[in-house]
Specification:
The structure is a single chain. The chain is an alpha/beta fold. The protein is 34% helix and 24% strand. The chain is built from 6 helices and 11 strands.
């Protein structure tokens, strides 16, 4: 079974976290919710949802995963990119050729981690100027090597399906899409 880690910091965008969690569940992918901070409980950007995570990120590299998902949300993406532990894990996943997926403001975590320079990507319009050495593409979801990026909350399901497409069979992905009426 494939395993995905989703890194959640206080201030995450609800749909950018919950859509990948839902899609991975439907696709039969094990998804581990990882809190970035000191508590297993992480609260969304609007205070609407508090998720209980499976673990708190420490010094481990989450070595048994196939993909890493970074949701945006403000200040969620700021909390992710300011974490040395998050940046270490992102570098580890990217450098080992594993999938790293970031949506909304979370592509700035790639910058903070120093990975994928020159790669094609997309992000929320408010952080384009922070993307430096990357090749910004205005598309909704962009794939380049082992990076998947998406512009924002409205693309959360499409983003999650792009991640799932890399992890499951075409038949499984088709079943998930049919079940979601996508």
């Amino acid at each position: 079974m494939k395993r995905v880690y989703i890194l959640l910091a206080d201030g995450f965008e609800c749909v950018e976290a919950l859509a990948p969690i839902d899609v991975m569940h439907r696709a039969g992918v094990e998804l581990v919710r990882v809190a970035v901070g000191e508590s297993l409980d992480v609260t969304s950007s609007h205070g609407l949802v508090t998720l209980r995570c499976d673990m708190v990120l420490g010094g481990e590299m989450l070595d048994d995963g196939d993909a890493l998902i970074l949701p945006g949300g403000n200040p969620g993406y700021l909390n992710l990119r300011s974490s040395d532990a998050v940046c270490r894990v992102v570098r580890h996943y990217y450098n080992s050729g594993r999938l790293v997926a970031a949506i909304c403001g979370a592509p700035t975590v790639l910058v903070a981690s120093g990975v994928g320079r020159g790669s094609r990507l997309t992000c929320h319009s408010t952080v384009i100027d922070e993307m430096g050495d990357y090749s910004y593409v205005g598309d909704g979801v962009v794939e380049d090597g082992n990076l998947i990026t998406a512009a924002g909350a409205g693309l959360s399901v499409e983003f999650a399906l792009a991640v799932a497409k890399r992890l499951v069979s075409a038949e499984t992905l088709s079943r998930v899409r049919r079940g979601m009426e996508v």
